[in-house]
């Protein structure tokens, strides 16, 4: 599959353009409802599917099937990411109208980070065939850990990253609108929104460690790996607002994701040993496993409505009062202290 630099630039331009459209559409902070989230989710999925159809038409059925297999893997694993975000936003009491800003920057960072991971993975696979065995072993181990019954849950309060952030970065304990940084009494402070953004980025690093090796099991073409990742990630924000209150209903999804990781790990081992599994077979297995796990989850939890994740009794952060917001100083220019006159600028009479 020969991909010209011009095509790479065109795809990157398309992604930047779609990010700009999304940012413009959500330039004002507001609570994103289910209908709006469903509309945006449908739009992003349609764009991702349309791009896959173009790949199928331009480069043949095998490339198209590889793209869709990778897209389905990334989209499925992204649902687990959504559940983690729901826990983080609820625990830290992030106002719903500010969550899109965090997710937008989080997804932007994820695109850059995964681009680096994909480039590094492609170089390793091209240089050392045995790396595929390491990827396969990691996927099999990850799948086993996901499917094994454990009494574990995400506890943001015990986050080592948050403790380190609060130790080394001066910060306030109150949200100041959508600001990530504020200046108070001449001191530059991070807001809790920046701390949450850091945690969102770190969670994507953890999920990328699973998803990048998984997609290399269905295609080793960097263009397909990157575009499948990118178009799956672009719809992640809308998916969050659509599914965040339905976390409790996807009870079997983690089992389905575990089986998918085990399957792609086995497929990767077979690929190294020259026992090639056709892409249509791999795509059918992934779609069937995910479809059955989702359908079984919705069936066993039928009758349950939307329900937000349980919030802690005493969230660690709060919303700034009007007096605190009024006391915020200009971010990049210190406010002149009371009783002092601002020095005249050059060329201006005092």
TrEMBL record:
Q: Name one Pfam family in it.
A: TerC
Give any Gene Ontology cellular component. membrane
Could you list the residue ranges that cross the membrane? 6-25, 37-57, 77-95, 102-124, 130-147, 187-217, 223-243, 250-270, 276-298
Q: Which UniProt keywords apply?
A: Membrane, Transmembrane, Transmembrane helix
Record-linked InterPro entries: Integral_membrane_TerC, Integral_membrane_TerC_rswitch
Region: Disordered; residue ranges are 327-350
Q: Where in the cell is it found?
A: Membrane
The answer, when asked if Transit peptide is one of the entry's keywords, is no
Q: Identify its membrane topology class.
A: Multi-pass membrane protein
Q: Which family does it belong to?
A: Belongs to the TerC family.
Q: Write down what this protein is called.
A: Tellurite resistance protein TerC
User: What species does this protein belong to?
Assistant: Geodermatophilus amargosae
Its taxonomic path starts at: Bacteria, Bacillati, Actinomycetota, Actinomycetes, Geodermatophilales
């Amino acid at each position: 599959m020969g991909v010209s630099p011009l095509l790479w630039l065109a795809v990157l331009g398309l992604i930047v353009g779609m990010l700009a459209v999304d940012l413009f559409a959500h330039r004002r902070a507001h609570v994103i409802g289910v209908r709006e989230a469903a509309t945006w989710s449908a739009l992003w999925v349609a764009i991702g599917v349309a791009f896959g159809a173009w790949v199928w038409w331009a480069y043949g059925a095998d490339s198209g099937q590889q793209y869709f297999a990778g897209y389905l893997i990334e989209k499925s694993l992204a649902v687990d990411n959504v559940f983690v975000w729901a826990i983080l936003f609820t625990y830290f009491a992030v106002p719903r109208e500010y969550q899109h800003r965090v997710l937008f920057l989080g997804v932007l960072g994820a695109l850059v980070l995964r681009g680096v991971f994909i480039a590094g993975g492609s170089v390793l696979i091209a240089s050392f065939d045995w790396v595929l065995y390491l990827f396969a072993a990691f996927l099999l181990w990850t799948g086993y850990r996901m499917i094994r019954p454990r009494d574990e849950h995400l506890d943001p309060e015990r986050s080592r990253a948050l403790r380190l952030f609060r130790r080394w970065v001066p910060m306030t304990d109150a949200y100041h609108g959508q600001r990530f940084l504020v200046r108070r009494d001449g001191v530059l402070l991070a807001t809790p929104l920046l701390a949450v953004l850091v945690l969102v980025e770190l969670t994507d690093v953890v999920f990328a460690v699973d998803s990048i090796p998984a997609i290399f099991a269905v295609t080793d073409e960097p263009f397909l790996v990157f575009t499948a990742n990118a178009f799956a990630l672009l719809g992640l924000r809308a998916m969050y607002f659509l599914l965040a209150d339905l976390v409790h209903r996807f009870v079997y999804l983690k089992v389905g994701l575990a089986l998918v990781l085990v399957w792609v790990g086995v497929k990767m081992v077979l690929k190294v040993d020259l026992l090639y599994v056709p892409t249509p077979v791999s795509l059918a297995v992934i779609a069937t496993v995910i479809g059955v796990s989702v359908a079984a989850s919705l069936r066993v939890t039928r009758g349950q409505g939307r329900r937000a994740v349980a919030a802690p009794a005493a969230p660690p952060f709060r919303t700034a009062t009007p007096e605190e917001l009024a006391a915020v100083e200009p971010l990049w220019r210190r406010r002149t202290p009371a009783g002092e006159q601002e020095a005249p600028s050059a060329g201006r009479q005092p």
